[in-house]
C-alpha cells in the first residue's frame, strides 16, 4: 500500500484512536488463508526504526537538531480498514514542541517477519525459500512503552545501568550553497532528507563497491561512508553530506553478503580518530555504507531491452542482510545511507541510494558536489 493511500486512511479514520492504548501482534502463515504458524508481540525494539524516523522528520528536520531521541515520546494507533490492519501511526511529542503524526505500513515490519520465518525454518514448519504472508493484529491495552529512556536502572544482578546519549554534532550550512553546483542523480523528493556526496567520495564508493566484480566468482565489496550532518540556517532543514569512503578491507566477502571484520572497524575508528583529533568538537561521523551486488542476473535480457530506454531488471535491491546491517550498525540514526551498486540485465553498471522512508529502506535521489567548502 502506498504512503499516500495509507495517509488518507489515517485522515479518514481520524485520530481518536490515540485516546486508547494499543499493542500489535504479528502473525505468520504459509498462505493467506492458512492457519497461524507463529504469533509474536511487536516490541519496543521492533518499533525502534519507526520511532527514530519520527524523531528525524518531526523534529530534526523542523529546526530542532538539538533535541535528543530520548526526549521524544511516541503513542501508537493502528490503521484498520474492513477488519484489516493496514499499518499504524505514531504520534511523536516532546515538551515545548509541536506534535507530529507519522504513518507506517505493514512493510515496516518486514524485518520482524523475516526473523520469525527463520525461526519457523529452524522449527521445521517452513523450508528454506518457502514463501509466507504476515499480518498485524491490533489489541487494546498495554501499549509498548515509547517514553523517554530511564537515566538509570538496575538489572537482575543488581548492577546499575546508566543510559546516556551524545548530542548530535552538526554544522550550519545553507542548502542553497550545497545545491548551487550540484549534479542531481535520480529524482529528488523533498519528503526525504537531502543527501550530498562529494565527487571524490562518490567515486570511491563506486570503486570499492565494484571491486568484487573482478573476483571469480564475484563477491560483495564495499565501504563505510564518512560525512557530516548540516542544518540550513534559513529553513531549518537537516541534510547529510558524504565526505569520504573507507574500504571495508579484511571482511568476510560472500556472493550475497559482506561482513566487516574487527580489523575493518579498527581501521574505520582510526580514520575517525584522526579526523576528530585534528578538529576537536568537529562534526565528522559515520553516515552509512556502500557495497556492490556484483553477482550476475540469471537468464537473458527480456524482449523490452531492444527498445526500452532503461533496463529495470537489476541486482540492486535491499536484501535481508542489508536491512540487518543497517538496523544494527546504524541503530537510532534514521539519516543513515545505504548505497548499492550492481548491474542490469544488459550488463550495464547501475547504482541506487536507499534511506528510511515510512520504516522501509527505499530508493531515492541525491546530489553530487565537487567539494565541500568549509566555513
Observed structural traits:
375 residues; alpha+beta; Cytidine Deaminase, domain 2; 2 domains; ten-stranded mixed β-sheet; three-stranded antiparallel β-sheet
Give a quick account of the main beta sheet: strands, pairing sense, barrel closure. 10 strands, mixed
Shape: globular
CATH superfamily of the largest domain: Cytidine Deaminase, domain 2
- End-to-end separation in angstroms reads 44 Å
What's the architecture of the largest domain in CATH terms? 3-Layer(aba) Sandwich
How many extended strands?
Answer: 20
Describe the model:
With 375 residues, the protein is an alpha+beta fold. The chain folds into 2 domains: 3-146, no CATH class; 170-369, Cytidine Deaminase, domain 2 (3-Layer(aba) Sandwich). Helix content is 21%, strand content 31%. The protein has helices at residues 3-13, 48-58, 110-122, 175-179, 199-210, 262-278, 320-329, and strands at 22-29, 38-41, 73-81, 84-93, 100-105, 133-140, 152-154, 160-162, 170-172, 183-185, 195-198, 222-231, 238-247, 252-253, 258-259, 285-292, 337-343, 349-357, 360-364, 366-369. It is globular, with a radius of gyration of 22 Å.
Amino acid at each position: 500500500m502506498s504512503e499516500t493511500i495509507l495517509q488518507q486512511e489515517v485522515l479518514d479514520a481520524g485520530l481518536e484512536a490515540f485516546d486508547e492504548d494499543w499493542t500489535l501482534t504479528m502473525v505468520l502463515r504459509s498462505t493467506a488463508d492458512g492457519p497461524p504458524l507463529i504469533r509474536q508481540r511487536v516490541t519496543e525494539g521492533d518499533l525502534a526504526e519507526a520511532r527514530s524516523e519520527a524523531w528525524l522528520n518531526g523534529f530534526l528536520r523542523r529546526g530542532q537538531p538539538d533535541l535528543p531521541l530520548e526526549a521524544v515520546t511516541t503513542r501508537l494507533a493502528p490503521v484498520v480498514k474492513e477488519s484489516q490492519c493496514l499499518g499504524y501511526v505514531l504520534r511523536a511529542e516532546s515538551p515545548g514542541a509541536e506534535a507530529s503524526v507519522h504513518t507506517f505500513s505493514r512493510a515496516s515490519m518486514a524485518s520482524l517477519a523475516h526473523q520469525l520465518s527463520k525461526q519457523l525454518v529452524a522449527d521445521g514448519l517452513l523450508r528454506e525459500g518457502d514463501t509466507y504472508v504476515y499480518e498485524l493484529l491490533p489489541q487494546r491495552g498495554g501499549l509498548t512503552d515509547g517514553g523517554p529512556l530511564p537515566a538509570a536502572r538496575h538489572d537482575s544482578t543488581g548492577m546499575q545501568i546508566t543510559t546516556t546519549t551524545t548530542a548530535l554534532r552538526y554544522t550550519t550550512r545553507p542548502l542553497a550553497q550545497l545545491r548551487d553546483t550540484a549534479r542531481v542523480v535520480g529524482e529528488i523528493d523533498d519528503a526525504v532528507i537531502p543527501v550530498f556526496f562529494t565527487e571524490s567520495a562518490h567515486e570511491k564508493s563506486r570503486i570499492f563497491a565494484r571491486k568484487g566484480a573482478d573476483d571469480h566468482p564475484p563477491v560483495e565489496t564495499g565501504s563505510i561512508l564518512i560525512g557530516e550532518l548540516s542544518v540550513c540556517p534559513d529553513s531549518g532543514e537537516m541534510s547529510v553530506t558524504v565526505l569520504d569512503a573507507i574500504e571495508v578491507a579484511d571482511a568476510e566477502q560472500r556472493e550475497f553478503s559482506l561482513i566487516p571484520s574487527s580489523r575493518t572497524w579498527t581501521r574505520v575508528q582510526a580514520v575517525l580518530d584522526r579526523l576528530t583529533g585534528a578538529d576537536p568538537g568537529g562534526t565528522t561521523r559515520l553516515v552509512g555504507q556502500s557495497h556492490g551486488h556484483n553477482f550476475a542476473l540469471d537468464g537473458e535480457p527480456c524482449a523490452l531491452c531492444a527498445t526500452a530506454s532503461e533496463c529495470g531488471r537489476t541486482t540492486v535491491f535491499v536484501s535481508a542482510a542489508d536491512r540487518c546491517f543497517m538496523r544494527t550498525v546504524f541503530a537510532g540514526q534514521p539519516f543513515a545511507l545505504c548505497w548499492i551498486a550492481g548491474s542490469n540485465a544488459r550488463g550495464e553498471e547501475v547504482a541506487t541510494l536507499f534511506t528510511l522512508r515510512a520504516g522501509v529502506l527505499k530508493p531515492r535521489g541525491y546530489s553530487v558536489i565537487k567539494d565541500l567548502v568549509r566555513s
